[in-house]
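Worked problem 6 (solution included).
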Amino acid sequence: MCGDGLCYERFTGSALFVFNGVDLICGIALTVYSLFIGLNHYAPEWLYVPLLAVGALLVLTTCMSWCGASSSRSCAMCLPCSSYLLILLAVAELALGVVIFTQGSTIDRFLRQHQQELQITCVEWFSDVQRVAMNSCYRLEKNKFIPAYGMLALFVMEVLRFCCSSELYRARRYRKYQYRQLNTLRGLDDELLAARNEEAILSKFALLKDKYRKKYVAPQDVSATTDNATVEV
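Solution. The predicted structure is:
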């Protein structure tokens, strides 16, 4: 059993762990993919360099998020820092996806101009079946928007990860605030208990003082009163 706040914190932490794992796999895959198309000159520089940067940033933010989500206090600030980086990463992924969608003709032109360097064949006069089977340039042109779809999917993933990261950080801060309030209340209870004990001791001392005063002072007062009455007679 756990309180609502603790259960919510565990839920957001678990969701963040899953999203971090997916983003780490995507970041590594994107880094390897961008290096592959870059080193083999399968894509222009303006395309594979941003892909490489996004992949590296994905791996970095994932590691920071995992460190911040751990119980170590020394790494606690990595969680909000990774959230801020996620905003920049999401904007970059969305912008890169839009650029790839809008630059489809530029990618096709690049493939046709560098077909000898890329060792691909661009044929215009084959039928559709022959083109699919023999024209490697056609296959690359057909799949050129796959990175764009990946960028949009990663954009949605970053939004979800940002929400989980922010909520986890807020839940932990609220729990720490509750602990501080609880410690303050405990301190006030201790002070109140000490004051009550002191008051009880003073009250008991006053009762004992009155008791012994009546026990030892009262007979003397009675004798003095009797003597005064005898003198008057």
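Discussion: The mean pLDDT is 75.
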